[in-house]
Amino acid sequence: MNKLDLQQIWRFVTYGENGFPASEAQKTVRNHTVFAAIITLAYFISVFLLKFFMRNREPLKLDRALQVWNLIISIFSIVASFKLWFPSFEFIRRDGFMVGFQCKSLSKMSTSQEYWFYLLVLSKAVEFIDTFFIVLRKKPLIFLHWYHHMATFMFCVYQYPLPSSQFRAGGIINVAVHAVMYPYYFARSLHLRVPGIVAKLVTSLQLVQFLSFLIGSIYHYYVYYFLDVYPCDSSIIQVHTSTFLNSSYFLLFANFFFKSYIVKGGKNKYKSE
Ligand SMILES: CC(C)(COP(=O)(O)OP(=O)(O)OC[C@H]1O[C@@H](n2cnc3c(N)ncnc32)[C@H](O)[C@@H]1OP(=O)(O)O)[C@@H](O)C(=O)NCCC(=O)NCCSC(=O)CC(=O)O
Fold this sequence. Notes:
Pfam families: ELO (PF01151). The protein is mainly alpha-helical. It has 11 helices and no strands.
């Protein structure tokens, strides 16, 4: 097992966009796969230990901390969206949405994009913080929430060191969705009167996102199984992993949508505001 080298991980964070050494960063992430699994397991255990510890205690207020957290992660998601999306339009314009974005071109990102993509991968561990707010504030902790955080981080650690335009396209779409979701959470944490329709729109956006990932998978399967040449840079095992994960997310979010907004006219918290 390789040694944990936080200094090395941090060195890439402070490197900046210019000449970002993407292959070194990818190697470092690959060398830390076991540590990533340990962090994910530690997250799982500490979340449920903390939940148990809080069972007879008053919920913590944490309003200001939650606002600051949501503001930071909103700014990160918005800036990363711009940094990652604008150069990607060139791939799409040149080679089309499927080939240019999903199948093979996106692996050849600029060094600036590579830098932001590295931050995006690390942010999936930082986003574990969301759950600690839920537990300490004694809000309902649903399976979808912790499963999604754990699986997404491990999926990123597995895919990032490998060439995969499909994975990179997924990350870029996801950060754009987070650029809407976190400002929504920020507004909620400020106790602003957010109309119920906004929550529905955010959940719909998440569902469209998972659907777009699944359409990407179908395209890969079609090319792999029915055409003579397979030009995409994701191995079929990578595509299978992506299909499994995104199908599970799609089903869980569809269930969330159904229970929150449709059954008995939807939950009150989304109606009253
Ligand atoms: C509309 C949603 C974005 C959020 O649904 P929720 O039911 O969580 O929304 P809500 O408005 O009722 O807010 C719930 C409570 O959480 C508080 N809250 C504020 N900021 C938060 C944060 N960063 N993390 C967790 N909770 C937070 C709110 O103030 C509110 O508290 P109070 O009740 O005190 O006002 C939905 O689409 C969704 O994603 N639901 C799944 C739940 C979830 O955990 N989602 C985030 C990770 S999934 C993800 O990130 C998917 C992806 O990658 O696209």
